[in-house]
Amino acid sequence: MLNEYCGKRQGASSAPARSEAFRPGKAVAKMGWFLLTVMSFAGFAYFFRHPLTFVTRLSGYVTDAFHRAMAGDFMGGGDFGRGNGCGVSDFRVRRGQGEMVMETRKMPRGAMARRPLHFFFLLDTSGSMNAGGKIEALNNGIREAIPTLRDVAEKNPAVSVLVRAVTFSTEARWHIPEPASVESFRWNDVAADGETAMGAALTLVSKELTQEKIGARALPPVLVLVSDGRPTDDFKGGLNKLMETPWGREAIRVAVAIGSDADLKRLQQFTGDEAVKPARTNRPEALVERIKDVSVAALQSASTPVRRNDVPVVEEDDAGSVW
Q1: Which comes out higher in pLDDT, residue 53 or 181?
Q2: Distance of alpha carbon 49 from the chain centroid
Q3: What confidence tier does 35 reach under pLDDT thresholds 50, 70, 90?
Q4: Residue 259: CB partners within 8 Å, gap ≥ 6?
């Protein structure tokens, strides 16, 4: 029945279906060439700089290539998985007449498994954000950034971008608690009140950056921190908890500083890279652009095959000050 179905998918091709049994030697040979290519491409220098990212990406490449080989798509060859227009979704091994034979079960060809990329907004909603239209500009900035993030995600079909948001004022809380695909993400406006529990926000996010919750095949997460003031809680303790997690250390961390009262020193400590300065802004319309620019740049950096620190420097807002 499945062979008849697959024949119909190829326009009822008259070519006879090939044998359902194949030997594992061809798959092993193809995987060997692939691994050699990947190791040469990545290089040992990258491994020593970012071991966790190297291992997780390599495992993802191997897994994806294996499924492609089983589907007959890898390197344009192979007798298996072709013949009738279907990919091989699984296989089992049996022994017959003194030799090992792989039996495949042909299933309709489907999309490759996508690798998750978790994207976190950490947003200051303290009382000072009520001044000068800051909170309105913050909401507009997030809302306008989402369509551009979707465009970036569409250009990386092997990546699944999942968005969440934390707000912090007197306490930190999840505004978008569950990972939402960027394609379906909708922004609900936040209001401003209270103090600036930035350290608590970092602690809250750190609890989500575990191997179990992020996944072994994930790309480095993106953290975008937006604030207009100084932390009123234990910022150092929260940052330490974030950096104690492997994914916290590997994350691409960028910051937006709103107005002249923003704590540039703490925001710079958050990014952890002297080359990635906080993007400063002094006007509502500039804040909208800054949020969009740093979010898109960070996502592009995280979703490229070989990363790092290629997050572009955002020009300073020098067109006059409102805040």
Answers
A1: 181
A2: 19
A3: low
A4: 132, 134, 228, 281, 282, 323
**Predicted pLDDT at 43:** 56
Q: 127: exposed, middle or buried (C-beta count within 10 Å: 0-12, 13-18, 19+)?
A: middle
Domain 115-303 falls in which CATH fold?
Rossmann fold (3.40.50)
Separation CA 184–CA 56 (nearest Å): 27
Give me the sheet containing 252-258, strands edge to edge. Answer: 172-181, 159-168, 115-124, 222-227, 252-258, 279-281
Structure tokens at 177: 């608690």
pLDDT score of 111 more than 90: no
Residue 263 Cα distances to 59, 121, 281, angstroms: 39, 18, 13
Q: What is the DSSP string of 180-243?
A: EETTT---------S---HHHHHHHHHTT-SHHHH-TTPPPPEEEEEESS--SS-HHHHHHHHH
Q: Alpha-carbon distance 314 to 245, whole Å? A: 28
What are the sequence ranges of the domains in the chain? Answer: 2-11+18-107, 115-303
User: Over the stretch 203-231, which tens digit does the pLDDT of each residue have?
Assistant: 999 999 999 999 888 999 999 999 999 99
Q: Give backbone dihedrals phi and psi of 60, rounded to 5 degrees, phi first.
A: -65, -45
Q: Which residues pair with 257 in a beta bridge?
A: 227, 280
- 38-42, 45-49, 300-304: segment of lowest average pLDDT: 45-49
3-state secondary structure of 257: strand
Q: What's the number of CA atoms in the CB half-sphere (13 Å) around residue 298?
A: 31
How many C-beta neighbours within 10 Å does residue 164 have? Answer: 20
Per-residue model confidence (pLDDT) at position 276: 87
Query: What is the layout of strands, in order, in the sheet containing 87-96?
Result: 21-22, 99-107, 87-96
pLDDT for 76-96, tens place per residue?
333 333 333 333 333 333 334
